[in-house]
Design goal:
Length: about 110
């Protein structure tokens, strides 16, 4: 009887449980999305890069890297979910010179 009672006491002692709390979910990716490029009257670039918009540039401020996607895209997925990002629209003027809007922070 003493052996059984000792086992019950050990099982009820705080800090001796073998149960582990559930792990908190870890965010592994981040989707950045937008509803437009801010230039509805400017044509999308074709074969000639003049007076048109070409890309959406997503700048990873933490890693100091930039990814470019088509100006017709509406989202970008990154695996760096803890980094901060900025976004801009790029294109070309009437002479074919590259133009960029100012980077806007992604909230």
């Amino acid at each position: 009887m003493k052996t059984i009672l000792l086992c019950l006491l050990l099982a009820a002692t705080p800090g001796t449980t073998s149960l582990k709390p559930a792990a908190k979910p870890v965010r592994t990716s981040l989707v950045i999305s937008w509803t437009g490029d801010g230039n509805p009257s400017v044509a999308v670039c074709g074969k000639v890069h003049k007076n048109c918009k070409s890309t959406i540039d997503i700048h990873d401020n933490t890693a100091n890297t930039t990814a470019s996607v088509s100006v017709t895209s509406t989202s970008y997925t990154t695996s760096n979910s803890t980094h901060s990002f900025s976004i801009r629209t790029s294109g070309y003027d009437l002479n074919g010179v590259a133009l960029h809007s100012a980077y806007e922070p992604v909230p």
